[in-house]
Amino acid sequence: MKAQKRNFLMFVDNSTVHNNMPELSHIKLVYLPVNKASNLQSMDQDIVNNFKIYYRKGAVHHVLKSIEDNQCSSGDEIC
C-alpha cells in the first residue's frame, strides 16, 4: 500500500481485540461508538441480500445466454 501510495479507512467496533492495534502508516482506524454495531447489522444484511440478488440475476442471465447460444448439449447440464 505504501508503494502504491494508497490510504485506507477502516471502521471497527470497540472490541478489546482492537485496542492493541499497531500503528499503521496508510491505514486509519475509526472506532464505532459503543452499542452502534448492532444498529449497523441491519445495513450489513441489506448489503448481503442485495449482493445475493445481483449475483443470482447474473447467474441466471449467463445460463439463459448459454442456452440461447446453443452452448448446452442437454437440459440437465448447467452451462
From TrEMBL:
Lineage of the species this protein comes from: Eukaryota, Metazoa, Ecdysozoa, Arthropoda, Hexapoda
Name of this protein: DDE-1 domain-containing protein
Residue stretches making up the DDE-1 domain: 3-70
Organism, scientific name: Parnassius mnemosyne
InterPro entries for the chain: DDE_SF_endonuclease_dom (IPR004875)
GO MF annotations, alphabetized: nucleic acid binding
Family annotation (Pfam families): DDE_1
